[in-house]
Amino acid sequence: MNLSIKWKITIAYALLFTAVMIVTNFLVTTTTEKKFFETHKAGQLEKANIVSTLISDNLDKNLYEISEIIDSYFPRMDGRLIYTDANGTVLLDSFTESQLLGSQLTHREVSGALQGNSSSGTYYLQDNGWVKYIAVPVLRDGQVIGTIFTSSSVDDIKKAVSDVRIMIFTISIIFAGFVIVFSIIISNSLLEPIKQLTDGSKKMSMGLLDTRVPIKSHDEIGALTQNFNSMAEQLEKNDENRLSFLADLSHDLKTPLASIKALAESLGDEESKETYQEFLGDIVTEIDRMNITVSRLLEFNKVSNISTKVNKKDFIFAFLVNETVNSMQPLADKKNISINFKGGQLKEKIFGDREKLRQMILNLLDNAIKYSEENGVVEVRLTDKRRELHLSIKDCGKGIPTKELPYLFDRFYRVDKARHKETGGTGIGLAIVKDVAQLHEGRVDVESRLETGTIFTIKLPKQGTWFKTL
Ligand SMILES: Nc1ncnc2c1ncn2[C@@H]1O[C@H](COP(=O)(O)OP(=O)(O)OP(=O)(O)O)[C@@H](O)[C@H]1O
Ligand SMILES: [Mg+2]
């Protein structure tokens, strides 16, 4: 059934309410009826017992005198009262036009009373409606010498109970209406934010990444909305970064292309061999620049799927750091930057993908060199921290503003949007660092002070300290 949540909630409330009202109605009416019947029965039984005692006390009197005595006790007889002998034959009847006198009563209650037990029963009679029969024995010296049989209408009780039932039913119907309206209002207010989230995600899927959903409550739905908004913000930022990355990339490719075109065009009229060779040299330089850009693009493509093809092994981490530091030395030398590595003697092992971890360290060293002034110092320190190895890379470069730190590891994010040719990066280096660290159940921290320097610290669990994934 394709019912909306609103109708599911409404139907559930209505069903629950109906069930409660049916049970309430049943319990209230049955207990009321039982109570009324018990009171009625007690009254009738008391009357029958009094009459029974009167008769057994006055057995020496004739029937007429006995009936006079009964009348004097009960001047207004409620219902019918019959006195039978020990065979159940009717001797006296409170009905003046009785046709039962002299006939034998065969009612179950009379038979019971003849055996010495008071008994009663409730019946529906076609002509008289609901009636209650009660019979008690008339005793003399412990012997049953007759019975008193009373019959009284309990229609009033049945009617009162049925009135109560109708009243509860009517109230239930009215309240069911309220419950339905109330549950529609409740479910509407509950589902409104979900509807807004659905609309929001629809807009997002259509590319409107600036969509945000207002947070109206501080419950689970509020938290969900908040997460949705942060996700939207992240996507929007990624998209902005991607666009600026593409703009830079096209610029990086277009500028050398324009130079190559201009150089090639001017070559046509050129006769001097030296100028010819010089122009060709320039063309090769421009092609090299394009080559670098394209290589970075390919590299990005390769690392975008960082989690695929993971090849984890146990190895001594300090060896890898040492190797990587050495491989970056020529780049550092160009700016006369010295790289100091401390902790190379540590023999602690890491279970990880050597190539990906090398890439991670390379990216951090590359940044440390790239964003440092000439003649600077880069300090690389490997420390053993109980269950983890910490690798910190510290530079004395220009630092990063605190407000930029939360976005630093986003793809295509660069602090310095107006890139200088010499530092021009693509903004994926740190995104790769974070991905690789997470792939090894590790994390990256950063501390930075403007014009003082930056420290990146990679924290990786040692070999055997986490579940090995192959
Ligand atoms: N050590 C650092 N000192 C100062 N700024 C830094 C440092 N490391 C990173 N940054 C800033 O963080 C930004 C993102 O760094 P990231 O390595 O992701 O990209 P990139 O270096 O610009 O390009 P790529 O590494 O992809 O060539 C950089 O553009 C730079 O502004
Ligand atoms: Mg970088």
TrEMBL record:
Q: Name one Pfam family in it.
A: HisKA
Q: Tell me its EC number(s), please.
A: 2.7.13.3
Question: For the HAMP domain, which residue ranges apply?
Answer: 188-240
What membrane topology does this protein have?
A: Multi-pass membrane protein
- Superkingdom in the source lineage: Bacteria
Enzyme kind, highest EC tier: transferase
Which UniProt keyword terms apply here?
ATP-binding, Cell membrane, Kinase, Membrane, Nucleotide-binding, Phosphoprotein, Transferase, Transmembrane, Transmembrane helix, Two-component regulatory system
Q: Which reaction does it catalyse?
A: ATP + protein L-histidine = ADP + protein N-phospho-L-histidine
Protein name, per record: histidine kinase
Q: Which Gene Ontology cellular component annotation is one that this UniProt entry carries?
A: plasma membrane
Give residue ranges for domain Histidine kinase: 248-464
Q: Which species does the entry assign this protein to?
A: Proteinivorax tanatarense
Q: Where are the transmembrane segments?
A: 6-28, 166-186
Q: Where in the cell is it found?
A: Cell membrane
* InterPro entries given in the database record: HAMP_dom (IPR003660), HATPase_C_sf (IPR036890), HATPase_dom (IPR003594), His_kinase_dom (IPR005467), HisK_dim/P_dom (IPR003661), HisK_dim/P_sf (IPR036097), HssS/ArlS-like (IPR050398), Sensor-like_sf (IPR029151)
Named from the GO MF annotations, one term is: phosphorelay sensor kinase activity
